Amino acid sequence: MTSTSRTIDSALRGRAGRLAMAGFWLATRTLMVVLLVVNLHGTSSVRVEITQTYNNWYDVLVTGTMPHDDVMWQYPPAAAAIFLSPDLLPFLSYFQAFVALTVICDALIAIGLVRAARRADGSLAGAVLWLTTLPLLLSLPFGRYDLQVTLLAVGSLLCLRFRRKLGGVLAGVGALVKVWPLLTLIGTPRGRTTRDAVVSAVAAGAVLLAVLALFFRDTLGFLGNQGNRGIQVESLGGSALMLGKLVGAWSGKVEVRYGAYEYLGPYVSSVALLSVGLTVAGFAWLLLWRVKARRWTTATPLDAALCAILVFTITSRVLSPQYLIWLVGLAAVCLTCKHTTQRPVAWLIVASTALSTVIYPLTYGSEILPGTGFGTFLLVLRNGLLGWAAVWSCLRLWRASASPAPATGNGIGNGNGNGNDAGTAAAPAPKAGSEVPARV
């Protein structure tokens, strides 16, 4: 941390600082809710997802079946609990209850990040990032269910250090809500921590799936709709096709499929296949890192989780604007630890978040879908930043934990967990029985 960062961190730890953060959260979240109701350049259009799509799914779910006949239903079965959750507030309308519960999830994430800063190696930078960056997405976070999923992923990472079984349970539940939270376990230290977390995740997932299968029909019906997805306009492959269309090298078109705007035309299947290939390559790299990693600090599980989600986000055939909620949440978790290697990557995510809002909803209909020069520039720039962030995240994670440690005067590597990555402090070697077990 720089001296300025340390000064800000110290100031925010006092009573006045905590009150300032609480006041900022209240003010910004109130504005986000207002934008969800009052239209400002399309900000209220995101509410359609709740008032129509989610509400329609609710009407089907209460009958005891999954809405698999709707091609937009592409989520694992535990997502049903999210769409049924407004019943917890029966005195409100479906829209009001869903938004209220989503705001509560946002508050829980903020509280968890603040509490994590109390650890010996903790920092309030993560809480500050969450408080200040999420509002850049305007009303979008409260108009989707990704905040609930992000809460499970953030909770899993924050629990893994001291309550690894609970962390595994949250990851397993999250996987049955939207798959990706399972990747929060990719960086757990070898040995008992990994065994406890993975076994807990599998057990929790199996039990939850059995319960859902007992109460709902067609619990796995989502698989067909998800597998048939094409190249979404906002994805990395979509920005390449958009650029090709702008320069006259591609003659495809945009069409609504599976609830999103996708490209149809020549080479689309090849781009989709390439995207899948890049995802497989990214997963292979993560496994290689896992095998080669030799040094773990308290930040390594957090950094690895962000790296994994960045890789899978940028290589996916679909890159919806709400995916930035995941990245902001995981970047915030990384910054709760002073030893993180992902600080510059977090800044790239902040910039990408701001650009995502310009793309959707501000210019989506006027620049992005028509594929204008400005719209193409925005999308290529945003995806370029995310691609840069993914590559940089991989490099910094590798250097910190898998590259050969620089030799010291006695010929022994320093083992400080940061390789040649200057400016990244490492945690001291853990004592026996501490929260970061030795590798076995």
Q: Can you describe this structure?
A:
This protein is 60% helix and 3% strand. It is built from 17 helices and 3 strands. It has a 3-stranded antiparallel beta sheet with strand order 1-3-2. A hairpin with a 2-residue loop joins β2 and β3.
Order of helices and strands: HHHHHHHHHHEHEEHHHHHH
Give me the secondary-structure category. mainly alpha
> Order of strands in the sheet with the most strands?
1-3-2
Largest sheet: 3 strands, antiparallel
Overall average pLDDT: 88
Spans of at least 5 consecutive residues whose pLDDT stays below 50 are: 407-440
Quantity of strands, as a count: 3
Q: Share of helix among residues?
A: 55-70%
Q: How much is the radius of gyration in Å?
A: 22 Å
Strand content: under 5%
Helix segment count? 17
Q: Give the overall shape.
A: globular
**N-end to C-end Cα span:** 31 Å
